[in-house]
Design a protein that fits this description.
Two copies of one chain form a homodimer.
Chain A lengths: L12 H8 L3 H9 L6 H14 L5 H8 L4 E6 L5 H16 L3 E6 L6 H13 L2 E5 L6 H8 L4 E4 L10 E4 L1 H14 L5 E6 L4 H16 L9 E4 L6 H9 L7 E4 L2 H13 L9 E6 L12 E4 L2 H17 L7 E4 L2 E3 L9
Parallel strand pairs in A: 1-2, 1-3, 3-4, 4-5, 5-11, 6-7, 6-8, 8-9, 9-10
Antiparallel strand pairs in A: 10-12
Helix pairs in contact in A: 1-2, 1-3, 5-12, 8-9, 10-11
Chain A binds a DNA duplex through α2 and α4.
DNA sequence: ATGAAAGCGCTAACAT
DNA sequence: ATGTTAGCGCTTTCAT
């Protein structure tokens, strides 16, 4: 190879065949190590492959097989622990069976998804995992219509119509609220995700349920909807604290949001938990490092990832399975950010 | 299509051709919208494509072209803001020119890399971006030997032999240390990355340089090497604080590490910054949210990603370019986690 | 402007 | 056990 030259194919099955003095189908056989081939020949071919640095062209294989062993992964953004853990679970499960991951990040740009989804279903990937906060997006219909294997991560079940793995959001919010009520809080602020997310709706229900049980009237002024794209948790906290009858505790929809809440509270010269108790959601590493350590609703992120991947793998085997809606258990993790109100 | 049926190709160029009453090469022409084709015919074909939901098979295209418009992205782990920002930069740059991203996560498993790299160079991807803390890995040689387009992110320059984009690590550490010295600290702990990373070596040099300038003797006991895989920052802080002459300030190698430092310090019933000043590295979102807000050395993460992607794109155009080693400027961001020693 | 034909690198029947 | 052949879906000369 001339210095700097890099043609597409580099070493092909054909080059190996010539060098080893066999037909290229024989080479293919040892490459896939599928068929029986004379051990001696195999050794020779293997040696040549090694020497010439042969690596099979994946696109050619995909073309033949009609599948690529690639899974598309559509995420909103990387860089939060939340996603990191879920992806770790996915990755681990997929790696074992030799699947690769194609990453699609929608970042702030709404609308990218549809475009991605079409190239994905265009044969590039065999299946699709979606970790995208969403309501009823149109591309989901597309996915279902062509019966393309996919699973939704962290959406709340059946309503989506697509296979999904989520958590017990209602119970999670219920537990958190219950805990606060038990501590004797009666004014509990709730910084919720936007209500277009069914997870947010579920959590609100849990929140209200607990309130009801304690005979506390629901005050809409205490729940503020936060946008997940550009979190306003800080400003919303300000709003909550400016209420005529401000909350003595605030429940946030994620750990990062909770940190913002804490930050805002401090700027009001209020103490945590003395003046204001705070609860987060997710239990990312952060929660146990910050000061004070954050009480939060744990979601089994890693398990969600693993489960989602496994479900997708199953669909790949048998696309006609009825969609499953799996819910993993949340768990309240009590740390230091809550105490009884003054 | 029968319910549940999903063959590989779904709608092919051939189906469209038949339905539109043209040859498939004509369909190809409108699909690539490359060649001149009768506007009328084009409309008709387009209409049929739309109706039948045609999406080109990427593998077939890649096979023909010998390139895939896919870039491999090798990362150690997702889920820290650091990676998130870098990837955002990469993603943005690549999206504009229609490249896709193949994600390879090495997680804790050392050794996965080599395997990945070989499938990547096997024609799956056109180029490779590596965000992997590393010294001199053997697969880098492989990359260079076959002249495979790649760029290293966040390594310190020339020594790697591969094109790279990093930051001014030495200056960053120098600035931080200088700031602390200026504040009158003389015992400055340094929780460094392992010295097998050249970035760590550079930072140490910066640290020592500043010390020298102030005539402060370098005490090896004050620098502790932390493993990036399983951070021991907390334990190392304990060690530092247990010194006969403990530090009055600690410089950490990342923001998350700094949080762990802070946590450990608090457990010793010491105040920040009153008893111990703390400085981080990176300036992730975290830094400005925690309590107290973290003084840290900002790295232009997003820009690093963009730059790396752009460099790779340039290599793709002309593989015979000499490798570039780009350094982006760090900047000390002063917040609340430092003050003069008691 | 469009059709016919070759071929990208590989796998998998089908022969031998 | 190994070679021959026919594609996988697409792009791209080369004809017409």
């Amino acid at each position: 190879m001339r210095q700097g030259e890099r043609k597409t194919g580099k070493v092909t099955i054909f080059d190996i065949a010539k060098a080893a003095g066999v037909s290229y189908s024989t080479v293919s056989r040892v490459a896939t190590n599928f068929d029986r081939v004379n051990p001696e020949t195999r050794q020779r071919v293997l040696a040549v492959m090694q020497e010439m640095g042969y690596v099979a062209n994946q696109h050619a294989r995909s073309l033949v097989h009609g599948k690529s062993r690639i899974i598309g992964l559509l995420v909103h953004a990387l860089g939060n622990q939340y996603i990191g853990e879920v992806v770790r679970g996915i990755d681990e499960e997929l790696f074992e069976v030799g699947y690769d991951l194609m990453l699609y990040t929608t970042h702030r740009q709404r609308g990218k998804e549809a475009q991605y989804v079409s190239t994905i279903t265009g044969g590039l990937a065999d299946g699709l995992l979606l970790i995208v906060p969403m309501g009823q997006e149109s591309y989901l219909d597309a996915l279902r219509k062509v019966n393309f294997p996919h699973v939704l991560v962290d959406v709340d079940g059946v309503s989506s119509g697509s296979p999904s793995v989520g958590t017990t959001n209602r119970k999670g919010a219920y537990d958190a609220t219950h805990y606060l009520l038990e501590l004797n809080h009666r004014r509990i602020g709730f910084i919720s995700d936007v209500m277009s997310l069914n997870t947010a709706v579920e959590r609100l229900k849990g929140y209200q349920l607990a309130l009801e049980e304690y005979g506390v009237a629901f005050d809409p002024a205490l729940v503020q909807e936060d946008d997940f794209v550009r979190s306003e948790a800080r400003a919303l906290t300000d709003k909550l604290l400016a209420l005529p009858e401000p909350p003595t505790a605030i429940l946030a929809s994620s750990d990062p949001a909770a940190l913002n809440v804490m930050d805002s509270v401090r700027e009001h010269n209020l103490e945590i938990p003395g003046d204001i108790s705070v609860i987060g959601f997710d239990d990312t590493l952060l929660a146990s490092i910050v000061n004070p350590k954050l009480t939060t609703v744990r979601e089994p992120l890693y398990q969600m990832g693993k489960t989602a991947a496994r479900m997708l793998l199953e669909q790949l085997q048998d696309i006609d399975q009825p969609p499953q809606y799996i819910q993993l258990e949340t768990e309240l993790v009590v740390r230091e950010s809550c105490c009884p109100p003054r």
